[in-house]
Every structure is written in structure tokens, then in C-alpha cells.
Amino acid sequence: MVQKYQSPVRVYKHPFELIMAAYERRFPTCPLIPMFVDSDIVNEFRSEDGAIHVVERRCKLDIDAPRLLKKIAGVDYVYFVQKNSLNARERTLHIEAHNETFANRVVIREHCCYTVHPENEDWTCFEQSASLDIKSFFGFESTVEKIAMKQYTSNIKKGKEIIEYYLHQLEEEGITFVPRWAPPRLAPSAETAASCRTQAAALADALPEAAQKEGLGGEALGSASGAAEPAAGTPDDKLDADYIKRYLGDLTPLQESCLIRLRQWLQETHKGKIPKDEHILRFLRARDFNIDKAREVMCQSLTWRKQHQVDYILDTWRPPQVLQDYYAGGWHHHDKDGRPLYVLRLGQMDTKGLVRALGEEALLRYVLSINEEGLRRCEENTKVFGRPISSWTCLVDLEGLNMRHLWRPGVKALLRIIEVVEANYPETLGRLLILRAPRVFPVLWTLVSPFIDDNTRRKFLIYAGNDYQGPGGLLDYIDKEIIPDFLGGECMCEVPEGGLVPKSLYRTAEELENEDLKLWTETIYQSASVFKGAPHEILIQVVDASSVITWDFDVCKGDVVFNIYHSKRSPQPPKKDSLGAHSITCPGGNNVQLIDRAWQLGRDYSMVESPLTCREGESVQGSHVTRWPGFYILQWRFHSMPACAATSLPRVDDVLASLQVSSHKCKVMYYTEVIGSEDFRGSMTSLESSHSGFSQLSAATTSSSQSHSSSMVSRWRFC
């Protein structure tokens, strides 16, 4: 595999001629580069007017390699051929270099260029590019590649230092100005000029054919190495080394090269909006500066951003009022490193209510808007603090977290959000502070952590109880003056307090499916209508015994009875009941019956759980550990009011209930899933207990549960 390097533009704030005077002092050898032992001039040409000066040198290098490797290779020194072409008229110096030693096994090429700064003629720019292609090397290809890259990057770092050293030397000698080249008073004849051009061309042709390829060695060798001519472009197309340090941070030479090459590739091939340099760098860091991997995920992200108009989300999308009122998160100043600080009071948030009221689409869009705002704040803080800030800190308060937050559809939506954020906003989380983690937190962490990148997980700091107030706690990362009031600080935090989302704001699956712009094509919940004499049934096939069937449903209208049955044989394909026999139509909801009317309970199928009566407005969660493989049928049927005794009057509650159930129709929204028992235990809820209110948020919350030997059902009724 060919290794390539492309440098940023390095700027010397000195005239070109003075830089050339410093550069010439590096020959025939340079004490600042111990590996550069010596050099001999093998060809030289100077035009009569002095404007063109071409020098070809043979450079002797002592590579820092294991003695055994040198012995196997049979060499003590490595030789490079370097050609310097100075054009004093144009004020440019081009340096090309290639290896002479092992040229049939290893191909090293480099190209370096000194030019005048396009915006200041008294400054000088330097660029270099290089390539390394190890075809074969006695079975030590990988070792040689590592040694070559190590030597090269080490010398690149010294490049500017060496020029500065000789500039200082010139200054000590009283040389602070070198006049520019000027044409002689008597211009050469046309014949002489033609002769100069012919001689220069002949010298260029004398180089080996291999020198026409890309190259390695240049300024780093005492500029002893060479590659392809840098791509032409305006100064705005190139990255300045000082700009990288100021806005992107300290990068190694190879990291700078990866950034520049990926940026150039995007400019040449991508038709849409080019990401900012900070964002390109995030993708590279997330893939350990593997250009091919970073390019792949970035292209996918750019396509995704264009498809969903994410670049315009802050300007065109306004969060629904439900989010503004009940989403307990918001931006709050910055941490001690200058990173924007986002506060999320997850324990006070009704995750189920938000999902039911908004759907996954709106929640994801809101999280995307938070990330886009985070990118904007990072740019602002970079300018304010005068140093690169490319990520933010998130403070998550878990006080109030309980089993209700582990509601499986909500967790599934959270995992989807994490997946989208990880893919499109890599390396944006600088630190995650998790405070007041309750005992239930390990359960949530077990579910979520496998979907979080290893680099991201290392940024998590978790504090139980009030540990965050002690040494190594919050004060190490956030100034005392901005610690939120709900954590014992003095700063008023304007983050919403969350709370229960009223059920009156809940929306049906059909309503959520009608959203104009979808980020996901699937929904978690399904809706069904239940009629008197026409239950709704779903089929679940279980292959492995001891699997766990889980369910979550809300009774939106009327009262229903929930049953679970098992059959060894599959029912007939499900059919939609026209309900013609009942003279009832079924608009706005599905109704499917699976159990054949000819089937007999106890012979064709069996009941595996006691019937559970569920009242209107109840939310029901439960699970069943299967004993046998086969077919399981979950059934919701209409709950008829008990007949009143002839001698007694009907109760007021019964009359009111009968009036509420118009047309003998009920409606449920449900979600089911089958998982392995080993994945279920300790991950969602305990198989033994699932009592849960919603923290201390609502004294009106009550819970009841019904448990059997192999199942658990828990319900919440909100007043």
C-alpha cells in the first residue's frame, strides 16, 4: 500500500531571498539532522543572467534502523538523489527527490516548494508532498514502513526549526536583507536564452524515469526527498500551519496530511456543501486518521445531511411546545476548558410521555438541533477563548431515575438516537458527567453502553449519590459560580424541570405516521380496534423455549381483557374482520382475528396466563417466559360490563362507563418484542418485580402489578 503525505502551508515571515540564503547553509551537511551525513553535487547549471540555478545532489543518509536489518540489507547508508530548481525571477524553489538505494524494492518520492506568499511579498510559503511504496524488502516490509514514516515525520517537525536556526545565524552575522534578483543591464541575446533553456531541459531529462513519479525526502532531508506537483488552487483552498494550530489544535505531521488530503478530495469530488475543517477532523479522529474509513463515513453523513436538510434545521425548524415544556435539557454556560456545557435532567423527564406525544421523529430532530447548536457554540467559544474548542461537555442529572425510564420502546428510541448521533457527530462529546446515579442506573448502562463508541465511553465520569461534591467531583470541571442551583450551586439554571406529559397530548400511530418529513421509516407502536365479539389478536412464533415475550400497551378507549394463549400449530393466515356480522365498521384502526371459531380451548390451544382486565387510560407493561416453542397469541378482547341482579339498580359508575364506550368499540396502542432470557434478565426490568411510580414527580401516580409464576405485568394509572 502506498503511504502518502501532504503538508499544510508553512509560512515564514521573511522575504524569499533571505529564506534561500538560510536554506543554502544546510549543505553539504546539517548538524541539526544527524541522519544527513553528507551530500555531493553531481550536476549543476546556472543561466547566464543568474535567474535559473539547478543543482542535483547525491545525499548520504544514516537511517536509524536496527543493526540486524542493516546487516540483512547489506548497507550502512542510504542514498537519495535531490534536484533543486531555483527561479530567482519567479522567486520559487522546487525540490524533487527520490531514493537511489533499493530503488527496485522501495520507491520514495518527494516534492517541496518555496514560493512567495500570495498576499504579502515579503513572506515565504513552504509546502511538501511525499509518497512511500514498499514493494518488497526481505520480508520486513512492515518494519521498514514504520521506520521510514518515523524518520520522515521526525525530520518534518525539524524543518521550520532548521530554517529558523540559520536565519538566526545570518542575523548574528549582520545579514538581515538579501536583495532580489535583477536582470543584468545587457540582456542576453536570443541565441543565448535559447541555449539556456536547452541546457536546463537536458538536465531535467537526465533524471531517472522513476523521478517523474510522486516523492519523499525534501525539506526534512536537508531537503533530500520528492512527489507529485501540488494541486493548483487559490490560496483559500490551502490550509496554513498557523491556522491549523490556532483553530484545530496541535496535530502531528501525518495527521495534518490526512486532514489536507481528505479536504482536497472533498473539494474535487463533492458537489454539495463542504464540511468545515473542524468537522472533517472529527471524522478523522473517530477513525484513528484512517483516510479511507473516514472518507466512507463522511460521505454517508453528507448524503444523510443533504437528504434531511440538517444544515438548515436551526433556521427552519421550531421545536413543538411539548418539547419546550417537558424536555428537561438546555445549554448552560461552559466548563473550565471553555467547552459549551449542556445540562440534561434525565431523571425528571417523562421519556415515555415524550415518545407517545411526539414520536421518535420529533425527538430525533430535537436532538439533532441540539447537536447543531453545539457545533455553533464550539465555533463561538474558539473565538472567545483563543484556542481550539471542538467538543462540548454534557452534565446528566439522574436523580429520579427509576424503572419507568427503562420502558423498552423508549430505550429503543434512545438507542436509535445514539446510533444517528454517533454516525454523524463523531468526537463532539468532550466529557460526560453523570451525577446522582441511582441503583437502577447499571441496568440502563447495560442496555446503552454496547451502542456507544469506545472512545466516547472513555469520556464518561459517573458519580453516585453526592460523590460529585467531593474531591475529583464537579468542581474539577466546572467553576463554582456556574454550578446549577439544583445541584447545590448558586447559579440559576433555566433548564425546564420536566414532569409528566399529560396523556391528553398523546398521539396515535396514524397521527405520527403523517408527519411531513421522516428521519425514520418505521414506528414502534401499532394501533388496533377492539369490538364486542371481535377481539384483536397478534401471532408470535417462538423457536427457543425460555424466550421472553415482552409487551407494552396503552388502553386509549374503553376497557379490554388481555389474554395470552399457546398453540402447537399455526393459526390460519390472519384476516381483517369486516365486522359485517356485527354491523360495525372499522375506520382508523386494525382488527385481526387468528383463533379459528372451530378451535376449542384446551384441545387446540391453551391459556398460559390468567386474563387481565385493563381499564381505559391504563399503561400496561409485562413479560412472559415461554415454557415451550410454538405459536403464542396475544389477545385484546372487549370487556363487557357485568349484568346487574334483577333486584338491584345499576350503579352510577356502570352507567357512566357504558356511555363512554360508544359503538361497543375499544382502542389500544401496543408494542411487543421477543428476546432471549439471558438478554432479558437485569436488562429491562426484573422478572420478579416492576413496581414503579415516576420518582417523586407526581403524588397522584399509583401502580399495581399482577405476577404469575412465569410472567409479570405492571400498570400505571395517572390521575
UniProtKB/TrEMBL annotation:
Under Gene Ontology molecular function, one entry of this record is: RIG-I binding
Any Pfam family matching the protein: PRELI
Task: Please state every residue range assigned to the domain named GOLD.
Answer: 521-674
Determine the domain of life of the protein's source.
Eukaryota
Which GO terms of type biological process are on file?
Answer: negative regulation of RIG-I signaling pathway
Question: Compositional bias (Low complexity) at which positions?
Answer: 221-233
Per the database record, which ranges form the PRELI/MSF1 domain?
A: 3-175
**Record CDD domains:** SEC14
GO cellular component annotations of the record: cytosol
For the region Disordered, what residue ranges are annotated?
A: 215-235
Gene3D superfamilies, alphabetized: CRAL-TRIO lipid binding domain (3.40.525.10), GOLD domain (2.60.120.680)
**Which residue intervals define the domain CRAL-TRIO in the entry?**
319-495
Note the InterPro entries from the entry: CRAL-TRIO_dom, CRAL-TRIO_dom_sf, CRAL/TRIO_N_dom, CRAL/TRIO_N_dom_sf, GOLD_dom, GOLD_dom_sf, PRELI/MSF1_dom, SEC14/CRAL-TRIO_domain
PANTHER family, per database record: SEC14 RELATED PROTEIN (PTHR23324), SEC14-LIKE PROTEIN 1 (PTHR23324:SF51)
* The protein, known as: SEC14-like protein 1 isoform X1
Species assigned in the record: Phyllostomus discolor (pale spear-nosed bat)
Starting at the broadest rank, the lineage of the source organism is: Eukaryota, Metazoa, Chordata, Craniata, Vertebrata
